[in-house]
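Usage example:
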Amino acid sequence: MMKKALVLNGPNLNLLGTREPAVYGAHTLADVEALCSEACTKQGYALDFRQSNHEGELIDWIHEAGEAFASGELVGVVLNAGAYTHTSLALHDAIKGAEVPVIELHISNVHAREPFRHHSWISPVARGVMAGFGVRGYALAIAGLALLAQAG
Ligand code: CA2
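Running the assembly step on the lines above writes:
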């Protein structure tokens, strides 16, 4: 059975490529999905790529990921939680409870930006963190999931 990698995108990431190109680049979310698909093919994984503007939906997906990881179907999650990164204790608790490896991802280097982007509720429960590599960071994060899976 081919293992799956889950890529979750949070609020406003559906706007990617349409506004703020100086910060987030000109790529659309569809471009990011294509890039993730290529990265998954390289690793022999199937891709499950999703976006939601709703905190509860992201939480439901993390719970689902916990079950899929426990049953061996899923290698892990790449999560760009958008602004929920900086606000969501609920997502923090969900990740902690789900016991699935989560790579926190940011397109921009959040630490070089406004101070309110420096704190993350995701980092303390993330297996790894990727920030500042633009949308190519998604491919790096998928390679990172594979590396962690091989290392055990
Ligand atoms: O750098 C990232 O990937 C972020 O997670 C993106 C979030 C931001 O709140 C985080 O601090 C860092 C924002 C996602 C919204 O993206 C937009 C893209 C184009 C136009 C408007 C918003």
